[in-house]
Amino acid sequence: MAATAPSSPPGDDAELTEFGYRPELKRTLGNFHTFAAGISYISILTGTFQLFYFGYASGGPAYWWSWPMVFAGQFMVALCFAELAARYPVAGSIYNWAKKVGNGHVGWLAGWMMLIASVVSIAAVALAYQLTLPQISSVFQFVGDGTGTYDVATNAVILAAGLILFTTVVNAFGVKLMARINTAGVFLELIATVVLIVLLAVNVVRGPQVVTETAGTGSGQPFGYLGAFLIASLASAYVMYGFDTAASLGEESLDPSRNAPRAVIRAIVASFVLGGLILILALMSVSNLRGEKLSTDGLQYVVLDVLGPTAGKAMLWCVLIAVTVCALAVHTAAVRLAFAMARDNNLPASSRLAKVSPRFGTPILPTVIIGVLALAILLVNIRQPQIFTVVTSIGIVMIYVAYLLVTLPMLVARLRGRWQPAEGRFSLGRWGLPVNILAVLWGGAMTLNLIWPRAAVYNAAEPYHWYLRWGAVLFVGAIALGGFTYYWFVQRHRTGVLAEHAVVASPEHVAPKEVIPS
User: Fold this and answer.
1) Which of 233, 269, 239 is nearest to 79 (CA)?
2) What is the Cα–Cα distance from 408 to 380, expressed in whole angstroms?
3) Which has the minimum average pLDDT: 154-163, 350-359, 363-372, 389-398?
4) Left, alpha or beta for 58 (phi > 0: left; psi -120 to 50: alpha)?
């Protein structure tokens, strides 16, 4: 049995024995490290800058109200996750939580959906380089001048590939290097965010009533502005997730059952406050609400318009740092999830995927494979950017489904009296049931909104194809059904903690096949 790191309290590994795991990952992360992991995954400067144009184009300034709406729903989910993080602070949070509150089949399906979505998310986040770097300088437009049919899409892949290569190398060298870079990046991102809020606030040209304007976006919608708002709300839904990453590093954190729940809650609350201020102040300070670039270039245009080219470009460099640490955090979370599933023999070549490097203290093979898969997905964007947009949207849908595969079994466990929060740690007490019910209702409603086959979301420009519009329904259905079928007929007969990762309390508990004759 591997020894616990000297710097970690003896109780840090207690929860691992409940899963049958022996401690292998090094505990080096403190409270701010876990908070930084959660908030860098959400990444306000990445998400808001990447998706403001879509929200504004779909719902006008009033789309801002989707930000507090999405926060309210996701906060219910985060509270449930905080309870789970206190009870089960282990790697691959979503997978192991679903396995514990549900069963092995639910856990595998949640992990399967989350793993595929995470790989897609790495590619999607990396593409944000294209939204920022060429606006800083035309030097970064390596392919053509940006006016050719495939100039932007191809250049985006080149820039994104460089970022994915960086996140792969950093994650392969261990969690300490990742944590240092991530923490420094988050620190700079938070400072830049506050500075941006102040600069936008001193340049306001209109009042907060701007968030009541719809800019006529409801016309032509079957449900009027409600239809437009539901589409626009995806811009917020695509940002406010990933807070569970703070708990996914539980086996590498000190005192995780106390620190992880706090980090989860702090990450989503800080993101809501800072992101909400950026969005409303951007609307209040931009010189012209009718400017066409608001619906194409988004917040990048607002920053350059309000702050001028010098200060604006300096702020865009900060956005670039945010995108970098966001991609790094998503890659890190995906690796921990793959490691957790492989440790249970739930992935092909599990024994190799779950092997932890004795030198770097991290599973290197899944780090490399996930990076390669993200690069492969990127290639689709070169000639088929519409298809890539559908794929990235599908990735977000699968994350919401994976969250639902945790909150729904947790609700069933509560109703059956099987859920017991960690004693003396984070607990919702009597609020647990209503919060859990709201989390499930929210998750179900937003999943339907995300997967709804609307042309404005999945096939906004030519060429128009039915399979693009219905891409989310077809792909998510195929992934879920295929995963369910594979587990039921194949994987469930193989699942179980690999011998080299299992905790061994005493010689009599060693399986006969592990005994080596003299």
Assistant:
1) 269
2) 34
3) 389-398
4) alpha
- DSSP characters over 327-395: HHHHHHHHHHHHHHHHHTT-STTHHHHTPPPTTTSS-HHHHHHHHHHHHHHHTHHHH-HHHHHHHHHHH
> Is the Cβ–Cβ distance between 440 and 128 less than 8 Å?
no
pLDDT digits (tens, 9 = 90+) for 433-490: 999 999 999 999 999 999 988 888 887 777 777 877 888 888 889 988 988 888 888 8
Could you give the CA distance from residue 100 to residue 406 in angstroms, rounded to a whole number?
9
Structure tokens at 468: 């693009």
Angle at 408 between CA 86 and CA 497, to 5 degrees: 60
DSSP states of 250-281 as a string? GGGBSSHHHHHHHHHHHHHHHHHHHHHHHHHH
State how far the Cα of 336 lies from the Cα of 492, in Å rounded to an integer: 21
Specify the pLDDT at position 281.
96
- Is residue 279 within 8 A of residue 95, CB to CB? The reply is no
Which whole-number Å values give the CA distances from 277 to 45, 68, 200, in the listed order? 12, 11, 9
Q: Which amino acid is at 389?
A: T
State the greatest distance between any 2 C-alpha atoms of the chain, in Å, as a whole number.
Answer: 83
Structure tokens that stand for 79 in this block = 């509270």
Return phi, psi of residue 149, to 5°: -55, -45
User: pLDDT at residue 301 above 80?
Assistant: yes
Residues 6+ apart with CB under 8 A from 216: 60
- The whole-number pLDDT of residue 65 equals 97
Residue 501 has pLDDT above 60, yes or no: yes
Q: Which structure tokens are listed for 479? A: 């992934």
* CA–CA separation, 453 and 470 (whole Å): 5
Sign of CA dihedral 248, 254, 259, 263: negative
CB 170 within 8 A of CB 178: yes
Q: Which CATH number fits domain 30-496: 1.20.1740.10, 3.40.1280.10, 2.60.40.790, 2.40.50.140?
A: 1.20.1740.10
pLDDT in tens, 306-326: 999 888 889 889 989 999 999
Q: Which of 305, 258, 310, 255 is nearest to 284 (CA)?
A: 305
Radius of gyration of the chain (CA): 23
| pTM as predicted | 0.89
In this predicted model, which residue has the larger pLDDT, 503 or 215?
Answer: 215
Place of tokens 């460089």: 162
Q: Give yes or no for a contact between 67 and 225, defined as CB atoms under 8 angstroms apart.
A: no
Domain assignments of the chain as residue spans, ordered by start = 30-496
> Model confidence over 244-279: pLDDT tens digits?
888 888 788 888 888 889 989 999 999 999 999 999
Q: Residue 10 pLDDT more than 70?
A: no
